[in-house]
Specification:
The protein is mainly alpha-helical. Helices cover 70% and strands 3% of the residues. Strands 1-2 form a two-stranded antiparallel ribbon.
């Protein structure tokens, strides 16, 4: 009896010495506070998001507080913090607080107002493009990881390829091609199946149809080979080619960047799903009769979201750089919208006479992209226990 009481007291004392359990959220913030660089990146990201929202409010509307498109030729190439010559300006041309905070460009436009508008454009392009790429990557990576052992016949693959051409052609504005692909899909597959069913040993007339009917591929092989093909192309030059063929538009920029940057997310999600589908909780969910969609999105996806968040954070920085590069080359967002890339492009001709036109957007792009990269690296260290222990 005494021994039992002693054991109970010792157990109670040991449990009292243990620290109270922490929730995953509190543990995440504790680890983030230890990583100074990642925390600094998160702070800069928060400030960038706030500035972009303020820029949207101040630069839009019928009578914006700061107008990035107002031309003042008599005030061109004014240095930063210079006061406006109010006597030579109309009331609607006077800048905010009567001061050019970041100077003016060769047309007398307020660089500060253009930088505010460019912040919202960069934020929109970054988040929307990454949202598109993450959505595609999760779908394809989940299919490759969960249904990878399934096989599909070549004639069915051709059918689905023609159907997939319909929305792609519609998005590109080629409506006749979309209608043609839809018209060809059903009759072509029906003809191929009729030809391949006519004989067990294919004749020269239906040998091609027989080959399509009997050739099979695994779903995982098809998706990953498609990823390999996409990775063979230099992404920026592929985007540059597509953007040059499409009408200049902010939406086209976001869609093209998103459609050419989903490969990394696909690989991450596939790798996580390949390990998760063999876990006991997935097997238990199958035994309970849960649907595949519920197993994937309710049980597997939350456990595979960590590398996706890291990839998305780093992808935002890449999308901002890509948009800035396209705008610098003249293929980005068309006027009158201001972006950091076209501000940088406008200033390259005046790099000695008005260096602020180059330094202002260049330094901001450097800081914002560096902040996203630092925060993404910090997330990778937090979500990976091996890297966390090493650091």
């Amino acid at each position: 009896m005494a021994e039992t009481q002693t054991n109970q007291l010792s157990a109670t004392g040991d449990s009292a010495l243990l620290p109270p359990p922490r929730s995953p959220r509190s543990e995440f913030w504790a680890l983030l506070r230890k990583n100074r660089l990642a925390l600094s990146g998160l702070i800069v990201f928060g400030l960038f998001f706030l500035v972009a929202l303020i820029g949207l409010i101040l630069t839009t509307g019928v009578d914006p507080v700061v107008d990035p498109s107002t031309v003042r030729l008599q005030e061109k190439l004014r240095s930063p913090l210079s006061k406006a010559n109010i006597s030579s300006l109309r009331p609607e041309e006077i800048p905010f607080m009567g001061v050019y905070l970041l100077g003016t460009d060769d047309l007398g436009r307020d660089v500060f107002a253009r930088m505010l508008q460019g912040a919202w454009v960069s934020l929109t392009v970054g988040f929307v493009a990454v949202g598109i790429s993450v959505f595609i990557g999760i779908i394809l990576g989940g299919i490759a990881g969960y249904y990878g052992k399934l096989h599909i016949r070549l004639d069915n693959l051709l059918f689905f390829g023609l159907l997939a051409a319909v929305p792609l052609a519609t998005l590109s504005g080629n409506i006749p091609a979309a209608v043609l692909a839809f018209i060809l899909a059903l009759p072509l597959i029906g003809w191929l199946r009729r030809q391949s069913d006519q004989a067990t040993v294919p004749s020269p007339r239906n040998q091609f149809a027989y080959l399509l009917r009997t050739r099979v591929f695994s779903v995982d092989t098809l998706i990953m080979r498609m990823v390999d093909i996409m990775l063979c192309f230099p992404t920026f030059f592929l985007i540059l080619t597509v953007v040059a063929l499409l009408p200049a538009s902010l939406y086209n920029i976001m869609i093209v960047i998103g459609l050419t940057s989903w490969m990394g997310t696909t690989r991450f999600v596939r790798a996580e799903f390949l390990s998760l589908r063999e876990q006991d909780f997935v097997a238990a969910a199958r035994v309970l009769g849960l649907s595949d969609a519920r197993i994937i999105f309710r049980h597997m996806m939350p456990n595979a979201i960590a590398p996706v968040l890291v990839s998305a954070t780093l992808g935002i920085a890449s999308a901002i750089l890509t948009e800035a590069g396209l705008s610098f080359l003249g293929f980005g967002v068309p006027p009158p919208h201001a972006t950091w890339g076209n501000i940088l492009s406008d200033g390259k001709a005046f790099i000695f006479d008005a260096p602020w036109l180059t330094f202002a957007p260049g330094i901001v792009i450097l800081i914002v992209v560096l902040a996203f990269n630092l925060f993404g690296e910090g997330l990778r260290d937090i979500f990976n226990p091996k890297l966390r222990e090493r650091n």
